[in-house]
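Hi all, long-time lurker, first post. I run a small reading group and we've been trying to get comfortable going from sequence to structure in the token notation. Rather than ask abstract questions, I figured I'd post a concrete chain and ask someone more experienced to write out its structure so we can walk through it together at our next meeting. Sequence below, copied exactly:
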Amino acid sequence: MIKRRKPRPFVDIPTASMGDVAFNLISFFLVCSTVAQESGVKIELPKAAELANLGKPPAVVVTLDNQADIRLQGQLVGIQDLELKLELLLAQAKNPQAKKIYFKCDRGLDRRRFEPVIETLAKTGATIVMSGERTGGNPPRSSK
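-- Answer (accepted) --
Happy to help. Here is the structure in token form:
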């Protein structure tokens, strides 16, 4: 005697909210990654007529505010600790092109205040990328 199989019930998996969940996750990670790069310090960037467009900024950010406070990745550091901490961060870079430092300096600072910081950045051997604001109407040129 042949046994008849019972027909399996068709189970419909609800996928209507999957798009909403994916959208919320993408939005969350975009907001968090943008916030992680900014230190929250108000800086007036230097102005220049011609600037290159970087595309994606480097992962290591050094900021020098109008009080000459040095911040590495948003954390306050002294000039003595800066080189060591930078070398530790740059050692994690997998390729030489990732060894870039994004340097933001307030335009009101005297050169005696920011030159020691630039010299310390140069000692690490990484490429220093400086930021600024465009004054003219020329479009930014590509850095390629």
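A couple of things your group might point at:
The domain at 41-142 is CATH 3.30.420 (Nucleotidyltransferase; domain 5).
The radius of gyration is 24 Å.
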